[in-house]
Fold:
Amino acid sequence: MGPPRIISLLFCIAAAITLSGLFAQQASPAASAFAGSAVCRTCHPNVALQFFRNPHNKSSVASNVKAENAGCEGCHGPAKAHVDAKGGKETIVAFSTLTPNQALDACLRCHAKDANRANIRRSNHSQANVVCTSCHSIHQSDSSKGLLAKKQADVCYGCHNDVRAQFSMPFKHRVNEGFMTCSDCHNPHGTNAPVWKTGRRPHLVDTGLQNEQACMKCHTDKRGPFLFEHAAVRVDGCETCHSPHGSTNARLLKRPVVFTVCLECHNGAGSFGRQSDGVATQSVSHNMADPRYRNCTTCHIRIHGSNSDRTFLR
Ligand code: HEC
Ligand code: HEC
Ligand code: HEC
Ligand code: HEC
Ligand code: HEC
Ligand code: HEC
Ligand code: HEC
Ligand code: HEC
Ligand code: HEC
Ligand code: HEC
Structure:
C-alpha cells in the first residue's frame, strides 16, 4: 500500500469518526449542542418554509422525540455551532460534501430497520454508488409519493434511458402512460429474490406473494399451484418466454411466433414425445408441415399450467 493510499485511508477513518461522532447512537451529543429547527428559518427561509409538508416534519412537532432525531437536526446533526458561526458548511452535516456512502449511512441511521431496506447495502444500486439521495430529494421533491426527485419513471430513466424505448414498443406494460411504475416489479432498494434456478441474477426484481415473482401480484391466475405445472413457468420463470418491459410481439413474447418459443426446449426431432430412455415416444404426431400445428397454444391453451390435463389442453 503506497503512501497516498494510506493517507486517503486515514482520511476516510477520520471522516468516519467525525460522522459517527455526529450520528453516534451510543454517545448522543449533549443537548446543548442542538439549536432546534425554528432558528434555521432566519437564514434558510426557502428550505424551512417548504418543510411543514415533509413527512420528516412530524418529528419536529412531536414532543417526545429526542433532539438528535428531531426536525432539521435529525439529518443535519447538532447545529448550535453552525448557528453560532452564522453558517458555513464545516459546522454542519452538509450533504453536498458527503460521499455516497456517508449519505447512505446518514439515512439508514433511521431507515435501516424497515424490512424492505435490509438488503440495501448489497444491492446493485448501493454497490454502484447509487444511494438514497440519487433518487430521493428531501427539499425539492417533485412527486406526491415517497419524496422522489421526479416522477418515478423519470427518476429511473435518468440513468436507464435504454429502458424507455422498451416501454414504447407496440406491446408493453403501460409504464410511460402512468398506469404502472417500475417499482411494481422492481425493488430499487434491493431484493430478496433468490437467483433463479437458471442462474440468472435477479435484476432487483421484487418478490410478491410469498416469495414468488412480482408478476403474480397482478397475474394471479398464472400463479397456481396447478395439478400439472409447466416446468418452464414454475422453474425458469416468466422471463423465459416473455419480455417483461415490452416487445414487438403480441403477448410480450420473446419471439414473433409461438412455436419458436416452444421449440427452444421441445425440439424432439419432429415429435414432441416425452423422452423415455432417450427415445421419443410417438403418442401423438405433431405434423409441423401442417400450419395448424404451428400455433401450439390453439390446442395447449392452458400453457401456464392446468388442473385437468397434463398436456395443458384444457
Ligand atoms: C430527512 C433528512 C433531512 C432533513 C430532516 C432536513 N434535511 Fe436539509 N438536506 C437533506 C439532504 C439529503 C440535502 C441535500 C440536497 C437534497 O438531496 O435535497 C439537504 C440540503 C439542505 C440544504 C442545502 C441545499 C438547499 O436546498 O439549499 C440546506 C440549507 C438544508 N438542507 C437545510 C435544512 C433545514 C433548515 C431543515 C429543517 C427545516 C432540513 N434541512 C431538514 C436532508 C435533510
Ligand atoms: C445565521 C444564519 C444561519 C442560520 C441561523 C443557519 N444557517 Fe445553515 N448555513 C448558513 C450559511 C451562510 C451557510 C453556508 C452556505 C454556503 O456555503 O453555500 C449554511 C449552510 C448550511 C448547510 C449546508 C448546505 C450544503 O451546502 O450542503 C446546511 C445543511 C445548513 N446550513 C443547515 C442549517 C440548519 C439545519 C439550521 C438550523 C439548525 C441552519 N442551517 C441555521 C447560515 C445559517
Ligand atoms: C431522524 C430519523 C430519520 C432520518 C435521519 C431520515 N429519515 Fe426519512 N423518515 C423518518 C420518519 C420518522 C419518516 C416518516 C415515517 C412515517 O410517516 O411513517 C420518514 C419518511 C421518509 C420517506 C417516506 C416519505 C413518504 O412520502 O412516505 C422517505 C422517502 C424518506 N424518509 C427518506 C429519507 C432519506 C433519503 C433520508 C436521508 C437523506 C432520510 N429519510 C433520513 C425518519 C428519518
Ligand atoms: C434507485 C432509486 C432509489 C434509491 C437509491 C433509494 N430509493 Fe427509496 N424509493 C425509491 C422509489 C422508486 C420508491 C417508491 C416511491 C413510491 O411509492 O412511488 C421509494 C420509496 C421509499 C420510501 C417510502 C416507501 C417505503 O418503501 O417505505 C422510503 C422511506 C425510502 N424510499 C427510503 C430510502 C432510503 C432511506 C434510501 C437509502 C438507504 C433509499 N430510499 C434509496 C427509489 C429509491
Ligand atoms: C412488469 C414488470 C416490470 C416493470 C414494470 C419494469 N420492469 Fe425492469 N425488469 C423486469 C424483469 C422481470 C427484469 C428481468 C429480465 C430478465 O431477467 O430477463 C427486468 C430487468 C430490468 C433491467 C435489467 C435488464 C435490462 O433490460 O437492462 C433494468 C435496468 C430495468 N429492468 C429497469 C426498469 C425500469 C427503469 C423500469 C421502469 C421505467 C422497469 N424496469 C419496469 C420487470 C419489470
Ligand atoms: C443515479 C443513477 C441511477 C438511478 C437514478 C437509478 N438507477 Fe438503476 N442502476 C444504476 C446503476 C449504476 C446500476 C448498476 C449497474 C448495472 O447493473 O447496470 C443500476 C442497476 C439497476 C438494476 C439491475 C440491473 C441488472 O442488470 O441487474 C435495475 C433493475 C435498476 N437499476 C432499476 C432501477 C429503477 C427501477 C430505478 C428507479 C426507481 C433506478 N434503477 C434508478 C443507476 C441508477
Ligand atoms: C401492477 C400489475 C402488474 C404486474 C406486477 C405485472 N403485470 Fe403484466 N399486465 C398488467 C396489465 C394491467 C396488463 C394489461 C396490458 C395493459 O396494461 O395494457 C398486463 C399485460 C401483460 C401481458 C400481455 C397480455 C396480453 O393480453 O397481451 C403479459 C404477457 C404480462 N403482462 C406478463 C407479465 C409478467 C411476465 C410480469 C412480471 C415480470 C408482469 N406481467 C407483471 C399488470 C401487471
Ligand atoms: C413456456 C413459456 C411461457 C412462460 C414461462 C410464461 N408464459 Fe405467459 N404466455 C405464454 C404464451 C405462449 C402466451 C400466449 C398464449 C396465446 O397465444 O394465447 C402467454 C400469454 C400470457 C398472458 C396473456 C394471456 C393470458 O393468458 O392472460 C399473460 C398475462 C401471461 N402470459 C403471463 C405470464 C406470467 C405472469 C408468467 C410467469 C408466471 C408467464 N406468463 C410465463 C408462454 C409463457
Ligand atoms: C424453457 C423451456 C421450455 C419452454 C420454452 C417450453 N416448455 Fe413445455 N415443458 C418444458 C419442460 C421442462 C416440461 C416438462 C417435461 C416433462 O415432464 O417431461 C414441459 C412440459 C410441456 C408439456 C407437457 C408434456 C408432458 O410430457 O406432460 C407440454 C404440452 C408443453 N410443455 C408444451 C409447451 C408449449 C406449447 C410451449 C410453447 C408455448 C412450451 N412447452 C415451452 C420446458 C419448456
Ligand atoms: C392441433 C392441436 C395441437 C397443436 C396445434 C399442438 N399440439 Fe401438442 N399435443 C396435442 C395433443 C392432442 C397431444 C397429446 C396429448 C396426450 O397424448 O395426452 C399433444 C402433446 C404434446 C406434448 C406432450 C407429448 C407427449 O408425448 O405426451 C408436447 C410437449 C406438445 N404437445 C408440444 C406442442 C408444441 C411445442 C406445439 C407447437 C409446435 C404443439 N404441441 C401443438 C395437440 C396439439
